[in-house]
Amino acid sequence: MIRVLIVDDDPLLRAGLKLMLGGAPDIRVVGEAGDGTGVTGLIERLAPDVVLMDIRMPNTDGLTATETVRRRPGAPEIIILTTFDADEHVLRALRAGAAGFVLKDTPPAEIVESVRRVAGGQPVLSPAVTKRLITRVAASGHDQRKTKAVNRLAALNEREREIAVAVGEGKSNAEISATLYLSVPTVKTHVSRILTKLDLNNRVQIALLVHDAGLLHE
């Protein structure tokens, strides 16, 4: 059973999400909140696997809450709820470790599937959406981010760097395997090592770091 916490300031949206998720036999909504205040306490008490988090809320917004939650060991996965598909706040949430985002007008079946995917350790961003997101957002503080990204990626060996760039290009493990003449299990092992070395949560963060370092070519 996948345990879900809903955090959104719109009670009608919360009710709709509870209704659609409650209809899934493998998902249980264990709680809800109207803003990010006290989310950490709710997580400790309710132990959700996935948090659906709105960005724009009164008091503590979803961005601040996401950053706080993802810094904690054993944190649940977070899916950002938004009305924008290229919002700079969404990008910041992804950098903080959110597993992806869904638009609030996404069809119910897709939201349910997104929860399942994230609970299974998969980000809910297609490669195309990832590339569009990181290229459309204004590059404020780009130079500083580039320096930090280059320094962090220096911890990788040559093979890990190749695979990190391939992840940034949106390639699947199978595609990386074919390109670099490696087995899929070997690629998975390298990706796991990259995440550990760079202290990252998921492939989306690898893609963002590679982008910041200027290693992607249009």
From TrEMBL:
InterPro entries registered for this protein in UniProt:
CheY-like_superfamily, NreC/VraR/RcsB-like_REC, Sig_transdc_resp-reg_C-effctor, Sig_transdc_resp-reg_receiver, Tscrpt_reg_LuxR_C, WalR-like
Superkingdom per UniProt:
Bacteria
Q: What is this protein called?
A: Response regulator transcription factor
MF-aspect GO terms: DNA binding
Q: Which organism does this sequence originate in?
A: Kribbella albertanoniae
Could you list this entry's UniProt keywords, alphabetically sorted.
Answer: DNA-binding, Phosphoprotein, Transcription, Transcription regulation
Q: Where are the transmembrane segments?
A: none
HTH luxR-type domain residues are 149-214
Taken from the record, one Pfam family name reads: Response_reg
Question: Which positions bear 4-aspartylphosphate?
Answer: 54
Q: Please provide the Gene Ontology terms (biological process) for this protein.
A: phosphorelay signal transduction system; regulation of DNA-templated transcription
Q: Where is the Response regulatory domain?
A: 3-119
